[in-house]
Specification:
Blueprint lengths: L6 H14 L11 H40 L4 H10 L6 H10 L1 H9 L3
Helix pairs in contact: 1-2, 2-4, 4-5
Amino acid sequence: MPRATNKVASRRRRKQVLQLAKGYWGRRSKAYTVAKNAVEKGLKYQYRDRRQRKRQFRRLWIARINAGARLNDQSYSRVIGGLRKVNIRLNRKSLADLAMHDPAAFTQVVSSIR
């Protein structure tokens, strides 16, 4: 009796990998083995970078708050510490937005901690 390989499932699995590899360059989008390696690596990066994106945005917000604070003769740590002391509960995202798009409002927030 011949060995059963379940061709339907094998074909579907390969098609899924090649579908995920669409848009890749050269053999990475056409040859199954190469595409499988490229897709696996891409999925690893995708998983990792979903977490890194959050870190990168926090770093960006901190840099923007620090730049706005320096214009008001303060440092980032003094601004954040001062906001905690006077119990102003603004997150870094909204503070960075104020520092970028409404410097006058950011200056008022900074002056309220002095």
